[in-house]
Write a structure and sequence with these properties.
This protein is an all-alpha fold and about 230 residues long. It has one domain. Helices cover about 80% and strands about 0% of the residues. Helix 1 runs antiparallel to helix 6. The longest helix is centred in the first third of the chain and has 47 residues. The chain is elongated.
Amino acid sequence: MKHHPEGHRVERMGWLRAAVLGANDGLISTASLIVGVAAANSGPGAILVAGLAGLVGGSLSMAAGEYVSVSSQSDIEQADIARERRELATAPEAEHRELAAIYVGRGLTPELADQVATQLTAHDALGAHARDELGITDLSRAQPMTAAVASAASFAVGAFPPLLMALVVPAAQVTPVIFGSTLLLLLALGAFAARLGGATLWRGALRVAFWGVAAMGVTGLVGHFFGVQA
């Protein structure tokens, strides 16, 4: 029997979430930081240092936070799998009934559910319980290092455009140029993420742009009211 290849968007869920979050955070936080420092009437050197510090510190922070967060998820998964392994060794009959009951709840007759549970247990008992009882699959398994690297790299990619603008644009024009370019990039990022995830393009673009504009606006006001003359 031939199987036609299928591409499902859920396969992108793990890396897409980390990549979009990192790029979005890098773009918004670095642009907001530069806008805030520029609004405080700071010189070009201070603006550039602030942007560079935001890129480096933000990338490392994203990597560390994502690694710790996803590691905690991985610890929970491993603990649950270890518990299932012990229960399969000490109470296989009870585990069989539990698995069959899951399939009955999904619409199978008790007889067919028992047969399915028997065959899946014979094939891979632990895998069947991890998938159908715990909801843990290869696609959903936590991958701390992959998530950390994806978050750090995408944060740096998102933070680079406002940093480049701060490098080449005169200090007096930094705020409007970065505000406008960041808004356009946020719209593009939101639409791109929505396209990959199968969502509506305009909704994805607007929800990302809205929070980015809010962050830059508030940070700019803070810099303006609490800034000092260069």
